[in-house]
Amino acid sequence: MKALVTGISGFVGSHMAEFLLQRNVEVIGTIRHRSRMDHIKHLNDIRLVECELRDPFSVENLIQEIKPDLIFHLAAQSFVPTSWNSPIDTIHNNVAGQVNIMEALRRFDLPAKMQIACSSEEYGHVEPHETPILETNPLRPLSPYAVSKVAQDYLGYQYHKSYGLHIIATRTFNHTGPRRGENFVTSNFAKQIAQIEKGKKSPVLHVGNLTAKRDFTDVRDVVRAYWLALEKGRPGETYNIASGTCCTIREMLDLLLSYSNVKISIQEDPARLRPSDVEILLGDYSKFHAETGWKPEIPFETTMKDLLQYWRDQP
Ligand code: GDD
């Protein structure tokens, strides 16, 4: 069994690679010339291929040479605020890369199964009475990033219907854990706390909107879900991957602070507020559970302790 992981050097990609290696799957990952390798330097048994997913020739060569059985398409511009600063780049990056892979699969008539990392951000504006969110909820995206994920989602559906490609879209709600990029809220707050503890930062923690509600799952549960999506999911379908519970960002921060003994004050930083924020994401994963048996196993408290420890261990 040969698996191609796009974006293998990223947060989810590195955990996906670890999961696949534990199952004795041959792992090939795409990197770009400027990719940071910190997250995968401990993985000796993976093969890395330099590939610019936006370049059709680069992708065609990759797919023709590797002929993967499984594709986990994780590479993306995934930070919502960046998508307001660079909307075209976000749309192009996220959409073109996927189209190039699907076109190559179609051209070489390969039977690979492909998972697409879509997002709960696609639901965007959600009224409280519309929760927990089902796959049938309306999509009301609130950022260029969210629109790019809607496009990825529907392109997967369209390539399945038009050409019979085996494509499954996972709409994953927020996920975190060790190696989470420091821009994302859980990691950003954990890093600030770790730096304050080490005396590298004054005891003031900068925050954005603390009233938003998010549904967090551990990244190690998420990569297991991606595996099951290809093993048991139906092509052309979309599945929510979520914990089924949510908390405010303030509650998440309070949990992190409860793991630390230092005294920290909280300060709002206007630069961290967004033109429009998704106020509530609370997912219903019953469709995915019914078809694959998946459910999250790692408690949120464990995830957040592991994340804080990750930052405490950084030099
Ligand atoms: N990043 C960040 N930094 N977010 C903050 C901060 C801060 O200092 N303070 C409050 N927030 C709030 C944001 O306004 C948002 O409501 C929430 O914390 C989560 O922000 P992020 O961690 O940046 O994640 P996201 O919800 O925008 O998007 C993440 O989840 C999606 C799935 O729902 C990303 O991982 C996306 O790639 C993913 O698709």
Protein described:
- Residues 4-306 form the NAD(P)-binding domain.
- The protein has helices at residues 11-22, 56-66, 80-85, 87-107, 144-163, 185-197, 219-232, 249-258, 286-292, 300-313, and strands spanning 2-6, 26-31, 46-50, 70-73, 113-119, 166-172, 175-176, 204-207, 213-214, 217-218, 238-241, 247-248, 265-268.
- It has ten helices and 13 strands.
- The chain has 315 residues and is α/β, with parallel strands linked by helices.
- Helix 1 links the parallel strand 1 and strand 2.
- It has two domains: 2-175 and 216-241, Rossmann fold (3-Layer(aba) Sandwich), CATH 3.40.50.720; 182-214 and 245-281 and 298-312, UDP-galactose 4-epimerase, domain 1 (Alpha-Beta Complex).
- The longest helix has 21 residues, at 87-107.
- It has a seven-stranded parallel sheet, with helices on both faces.
- Helix 1 (11-22) crosses helix 7, helix 2 runs parallel beside helix 4 (87-107) and helix 4 (87-107) packs parallel to helix 5.
- Bound molecules: guanosine-5'-diphosphate-alpha-D-mannose.
- Residues 78, 80, 119-121, 173-174, 183-185, 188, 207-210, 212, 214, 249, 272, 274, 277, 281 line the site of guanosine-5'-diphosphate-alpha-D-mannose.
